[in-house]
Design brief:
The chain has helices spanning 2-5, 37-40, 71-79, 95-133, 138-161, and strands spanning 8-12, 15-18, 33-35. The chain is mainly alpha-helical.
Length: 162
């Protein structure tokens, strides 16, 4: 907000200065404009600007912030423990509840993937130990495969020569 409106300076008591929007106070140079205390109230933080007109707290126009959950959203709401059964889910649910359930489901899915990755690491380690006991390695597999290709190429060359 400060960058869009400009910055307020108070060099001495009783006088307010405003820099041009987007400029730093040090770089303002000759573009500093005096502000009266009456217009300063527009720059107060919090609430609405004083120039926008009166707003009464009773006249708030809001769109109902409720969504009809899809089947996938209902499954997420059940999986995350928001509701105990599919029948307990109301027809309309606040979007904050759906977002919170999705975030919780996302975290649960990440934990599950982390667990499966750790299990897969231990499985690869066990498989590699068994392969070492059988004296198998990628180098021996590669050499055997290339020897087999050479034999097939030699047989194909003999068949072509006949």
């Amino acid at each position: 907000m400060l960058a869009a409106v400009g910055c307020l300076l108070r060099p001495n008591l009783g006088r307010f200065l405003r820099c041009a929007p987007g400029m730093r106070p040090a770089a303002a140079g000759g573009t500093v404009f005096p502000l009266s205390p009456a217009t300063l109230s527009r720059y107060k933080s919090g609430g609405t600007p004083s120039g926008s007109g009166p707003q009464s707290p009773g006249k708030v126009h809001r769109v109902p912030a409720e969504l009809k959950p899809s089947q996938f959203d209902k499954k997420i709401l059940l999986w995350t423990g928001r509701f105990k059964a599919m029948e307990d889910i109301p027809l309309r649910v606040p979007p904050e509840m759906i977002d919170a359930a999705r975030n919780k489901a996302r975290v649960k899915a990440c934990y599950i993937m982390i667990g499966l990755t750790i299990i897969a690491c231990f499985a690869v380690i066990a498989s590699a130990k068994r392969a070492v006991e059988r004296h198998e390695s990628l180098t021996s597999w590669n050499l055997a495969k290339k020897a087999k290709w050479r034999e097939e190429a030699a047989i194909a060359a003999q068949a072509k020569a006949k």
